[in-house]
Amino acid sequence: MLVLAGIVALHVTTIILLLVATIDNAWWTTDSTSTDLWGQWVLTKSDWHYLNLKDYPEEFLQSVQATSVLACVFAILALFVFLAQLFTLPKGQRFTFTGILQLISCLCIMTAASVYTAQLHTNETEGGYGHSYILAWISFVLTLLLAIIYLVLRKKSE
Predict the structure, then answer these.
(1) What is the C-alpha separation between 52 and 147, in angstroms, rounded?
(2) Which residues are CB-contacts of 62 (< 8 A; sequence separation ≥ 6)?
(3) How many Å apart are CA 123 and CA 96, to the nearest integer?
(4) What pTM was computed for the model?
(5) DSSP letters for 32-65
(6) Phi and psi torsions of 113, nearest 5°
């Protein structure tokens, strides 16, 4: 029972990290700007102003946005499937479908962070990756770990 609670807690934590990485505005930061997947905040005279991302390659930006959102959707779906499988899966069976959904979520966030790394901000000399970008890579590791756990885990027979 304690292992089950730990798995659910890790899964919820991973979902929260994925949501923060997708929504928060710190994928790329400088002293006067903070850029996320949806827009850019610029500091002018102690006020933050929102700008659209006009100078970014649209196809790469949209792929990062889409795969980040899909990672969140698949992680949330995997949690609900896992909870449903707890009550419907025969004893001794593996949580394969939950593991596959979690693996898809893992691949989505890895794709988002990889495309962001390879295609956006490659010529920037000022600034660096922010905490949302780092949370995306941490989420990748946690979703991969959860996918492996779900693929190995069997429903206990009493």
Answers:
(1) 36
(2) none
(3) 42
(4) 0.89
(5) SEEE-SS-EEEEETTEEEEE---SS-HHHHHHHH
(6) -70, -35
